[in-house]
Amino acid sequence: MYQQQGSDPTKQSPATGFPVSYSNSTTYSTNEASYAPVPPPQPKPLVNWSTGLCDCFSECGNCCMTCWCPCVTFGRVAEIVDKGSTSCGASGALYTLICCVIGCGCLYSCFYRPKMRRQYGLKGNGCSDCLIHCFCEPCALCQEYRELQHRGFDMIIGWHGNVEQRSRGVAMTATTAPSVENGMSR
Length: 186
Fold this sequence. Notes:
Transmembrane segments: 92-111
Region (Disordered): 1-24
Strand content: under 5%
InterPro entries: PLAC_motif_containing
Structural class: mainly alpha
Radius of gyration: 30 Å
Keywords: Membrane, Transmembrane, Transmembrane helix
Pfam family, one: PLAC8
Number of strands: 0
């Protein structure tokens, strides 16, 4: 760096391109309290599933549908868990294809149970998720379906239908009908 004549060599500007002024009156205080690390938020406690694994017969319609056509139940669950990024039809078709080729649709559906547990803070672990889907696939799908219903989802209309229904409900409660002051006249 080039030094200017008459300048103090101990106070050279760094080569940043930004002007730097040095003054003896500037003091910097270090307030240790402002630099204290912020603790991470406490994790939410895990909650139990709203229904048991073997409560399949509380809803005969869903139980029968899952018994005869598990691809429909899985497709509906997958659409809600994926928040609409995959459709019910695409997930159900892939489930059916895996069932036809390999004969074991649980290889696909067992990945959705941990996703759902993480989203809603449900108790369980990866090993139990896999075992439940491998040995009791229909009960697992019915339990996941019921859990989403208890959380307020209308499983038949899918993710986008639920979002639209909820946004319409908020919009309707936020607006009120216009008031008519003197009645109607011609």
